[in-house]
Amino acid sequence: MSRFLKTYWGLIIVGYIGLVLLGTLVVPGRSPFEWVHTLIPPGRIRDILVYPLQHHHPLTFAKFLQWADIASNSVLFFPVGLGVCWGCHHYFPGARRLLFVITFFTGLILSGCIELLQARIPYRVPSVTDVVANTSGTIVGCSYMYFRVFRKKRRAQQTPSLPEDTKHSKFSKEV
Protein backbone atom coordinates (compact mmCIF):
# COMPACT_ATOMS: atom_id res chain seq x y z
CA MET A 1 0.00 0.00 0.00
CA SER A 2 1.39 3.39 -0.92
CA ARG A 3 2.19 6.03 1.64
CA PHE A 4 -0.61 8.25 0.34
CA LEU A 5 -3.21 5.52 0.85
CA LYS A 6 -1.92 4.77 4.33
CA THR A 7 -2.18 8.45 5.25
CA TYR A 8 -5.62 8.71 3.63
CA TRP A 9 -7.05 5.70 5.48
CA GLY A 10 -5.32 6.76 8.69
CA LEU A 11 -7.04 10.14 8.55
CA ILE A 12 -10.40 8.51 7.82
CA ILE A 13 -9.99 6.18 10.80
CA VAL A 14 -8.96 9.03 13.12
CA GLY A 15 -11.93 11.10 11.91
CA TYR A 16 -14.31 8.19 12.47
CA ILE A 17 -13.00 7.60 15.99
CA GLY A 18 -13.37 11.31 16.69
CA LEU A 19 -16.96 11.23 15.42
CA VAL A 20 -17.77 8.22 17.61
CA LEU A 21 -16.25 9.87 20.68
CA LEU A 22 -17.98 13.16 19.95
CA GLY A 23 -21.36 11.53 19.48
CA THR A 24 -21.14 9.17 22.42
CA LEU A 25 -19.28 11.14 25.05
CA VAL A 26 -19.47 14.88 24.37
CA VAL A 27 -22.98 15.66 23.11
CA PRO A 28 -25.34 15.73 26.11
CA GLY A 29 -28.76 14.12 26.10
CA ARG A 30 -30.27 11.12 24.38
CA SER A 31 -32.95 12.59 22.14
CA PRO A 32 -32.82 14.56 18.88
CA PHE A 33 -34.70 17.36 20.67
CA GLU A 34 -31.83 17.80 23.13
CA TRP A 35 -29.21 17.47 20.38
CA VAL A 36 -30.86 20.18 18.29
CA HIS A 37 -30.95 22.54 21.28
CA THR A 38 -27.30 21.80 22.08
CA LEU A 39 -25.74 21.93 18.63
CA ILE A 40 -27.79 24.49 16.66
CA PRO A 41 -27.84 28.15 17.71
CA PRO A 42 -31.22 29.81 18.36
CA GLY A 43 -33.02 31.08 15.30
CA ARG A 44 -35.27 30.11 12.43
CA ILE A 45 -33.40 26.89 11.53
CA ARG A 46 -33.64 25.59 15.09
CA ASP A 47 -37.35 26.41 15.16
CA ILE A 48 -37.90 24.49 11.92
CA LEU A 49 -36.00 21.46 13.22
CA VAL A 50 -37.64 21.48 16.66
CA TYR A 51 -41.26 21.91 15.47
CA PRO A 52 -41.83 18.25 14.48
CA LEU A 53 -40.16 17.14 17.71
CA GLN A 54 -42.50 19.25 19.85
CA HIS A 55 -45.81 18.36 18.18
CA HIS A 56 -46.11 14.62 18.45
CA HIS A 57 -47.96 11.89 20.23
CA PRO A 58 -45.78 11.00 23.26
CA LEU A 59 -46.06 7.22 22.88
CA THR A 60 -45.30 7.23 19.16
CA PHE A 61 -42.40 9.63 19.64
CA ALA A 62 -40.93 7.51 22.46
CA LYS A 63 -41.03 4.39 20.26
CA PHE A 64 -39.49 6.35 17.40
CA LEU A 65 -36.65 7.55 19.64
CA GLN A 66 -36.03 4.03 20.92
CA TRP A 67 -35.80 2.53 17.41
CA ALA A 68 -33.80 5.48 16.10
CA ASP A 69 -31.33 5.07 18.95
CA ILE A 70 -30.93 1.35 18.24
CA ALA A 71 -30.54 1.92 14.49
CA SER A 72 -28.04 4.75 14.92
CA ASN A 73 -25.91 2.71 17.34
CA SER A 74 -25.91 -0.26 14.97
CA VAL A 75 -24.96 1.89 11.99
CA LEU A 76 -22.28 3.65 14.03
CA PHE A 77 -20.53 0.36 14.81
CA PHE A 78 -20.97 -1.21 11.35
CA PRO A 79 -17.55 0.12 10.18
CA VAL A 80 -15.96 -1.30 13.34
CA GLY A 81 -17.11 -4.76 12.28
CA LEU A 82 -15.78 -4.17 8.77
CA GLY A 83 -12.38 -3.11 10.07
CA VAL A 84 -12.01 -5.88 12.64
CA CYS A 85 -13.07 -8.51 10.11
CA TRP A 86 -10.69 -7.16 7.49
CA GLY A 87 -7.80 -6.96 9.95
CA CYS A 88 -8.34 -10.40 11.46
CA HIS A 89 -8.95 -12.07 8.10
CA HIS A 90 -5.33 -11.49 7.14
CA TYR A 91 -4.10 -13.23 10.31
CA PHE A 92 -6.70 -16.04 10.34
CA PRO A 93 -7.71 -16.55 6.67
CA GLY A 94 -9.57 -19.84 7.07
CA ALA A 95 -11.08 -19.49 10.54
CA ARG A 96 -14.58 -18.14 10.03
CA ARG A 97 -15.86 -18.96 13.52
CA LEU A 98 -12.82 -17.39 15.18
CA LEU A 99 -13.27 -14.30 13.02
CA PHE A 100 -16.83 -13.79 14.25
CA VAL A 101 -15.88 -14.49 17.89
CA ILE A 102 -13.08 -11.89 17.77
CA THR A 103 -15.42 -9.37 16.14
CA PHE A 104 -18.16 -10.05 18.71
CA PHE A 105 -15.87 -9.55 21.70
CA THR A 106 -14.22 -6.48 20.15
CA GLY A 107 -17.63 -4.84 19.69
CA LEU A 108 -18.76 -5.89 23.15
CA ILE A 109 -15.63 -4.61 24.92
CA LEU A 110 -15.46 -1.36 22.95
CA SER A 111 -19.15 -0.66 23.52
CA GLY A 112 -18.90 -1.57 27.19
CA CYS A 113 -15.97 0.82 27.64
CA ILE A 114 -17.93 3.63 26.00
CA GLU A 115 -20.92 2.99 28.27
CA LEU A 116 -18.67 2.90 31.35
CA LEU A 117 -17.23 6.27 30.31
CA GLN A 118 -20.76 7.62 29.80
CA ALA A 119 -21.62 6.59 33.37
CA ARG A 120 -18.85 8.89 34.64
CA ILE A 121 -19.89 11.91 32.53
CA PRO A 122 -22.70 14.14 33.81
CA TYR A 123 -25.87 14.34 31.68
CA ARG A 124 -25.04 11.07 29.89
CA VAL A 125 -27.13 7.95 30.37
CA PRO A 126 -25.46 4.55 29.86
CA SER A 127 -27.67 1.80 28.53
CA VAL A 128 -27.45 -1.95 28.04
CA THR A 129 -29.52 -1.51 24.88
CA ASP A 130 -26.68 0.56 23.43
CA VAL A 131 -24.19 -2.24 24.15
CA VAL A 132 -26.44 -4.79 22.42
CA ALA A 133 -27.06 -2.49 19.43
CA ASN A 134 -23.36 -1.64 19.07
CA THR A 135 -22.33 -5.29 19.27
CA SER A 136 -24.95 -6.27 16.70
CA GLY A 137 -23.64 -3.52 14.42
CA THR A 138 -20.14 -4.99 14.60
CA ILE A 139 -21.45 -8.49 13.84
CA VAL A 140 -23.48 -7.22 10.88
CA GLY A 141 -20.41 -5.37 9.58
CA CYS A 142 -18.26 -8.49 9.90
CA SER A 143 -20.95 -10.60 8.22
CA TYR A 144 -21.16 -8.17 5.34
CA MET A 145 -17.40 -8.12 4.89
CA TYR A 146 -17.11 -11.89 5.09
CA PHE A 147 -20.02 -12.93 2.90
CA ARG A 148 -19.86 -10.10 0.39
CA VAL A 149 -16.16 -9.46 -0.09
CA PHE A 150 -14.12 -12.45 1.07
CA ARG A 151 -16.38 -15.14 -0.36
CA LYS A 152 -16.38 -13.42 -3.75
CA LYS A 153 -12.58 -13.39 -3.73
CA ARG A 154 -12.43 -17.04 -2.73
CA ARG A 155 -14.92 -18.05 -5.43
CA ALA A 156 -12.94 -16.15 -8.02
CA GLN A 157 -9.78 -17.98 -6.94
CA GLN A 158 -11.47 -21.40 -6.93
CA THR A 159 -13.08 -21.23 -10.39
CA PRO A 160 -10.80 -22.96 -12.83
CA SER A 161 -9.80 -20.94 -15.83
CA LEU A 162 -10.20 -22.69 -19.16
CA PRO A 163 -7.36 -22.62 -21.62
CA GLU A 164 -8.07 -20.55 -24.68
CA ASP A 165 -7.43 -23.35 -27.19
CA THR A 166 -10.14 -25.69 -25.83
CA LYS A 167 -13.48 -26.00 -27.54
CA HIS A 168 -16.20 -24.53 -25.33
CA SER A 169 -19.09 -25.92 -27.28
CA LYS A 170 -19.76 -29.15 -29.06
CA PHE A 171 -21.26 -27.09 -31.87
CA SER A 172 -18.12 -25.08 -32.59
CA LYS A 173 -16.75 -25.52 -36.07
CA GLU A 174 -13.32 -26.87 -36.62
CA VAL A 175 -11.31 -24.69 -38.94
The low-pLDDT segments are none
What overall geometry do the principal axes of the alpha carbons give? elongated
Instruction: Classify the helix fraction into a percent range.
Output: over 70%
Which structural class do you get from the secondary structure elements?
mainly alpha
Q: What is the string of helix and strand elements?
A: HHHHHH
Termini separation comes to: 47 Å
The largest sheet, given as strand count, sense and whether it forms a barrel, is:
none
**Structural Rg:** 24 Å
Beta-strand content: under 5%
Please give the count of helices: 6
Total number of β-strand segments?
0
Write the layout of secondary structure elements.
Elements: H1 3-26, H2 32-39, H3 44-54, H4 58-91, H5 96-120, H6 128-158
Helix pairs in contact: 2-3, 4-5, 4-6, 5-6
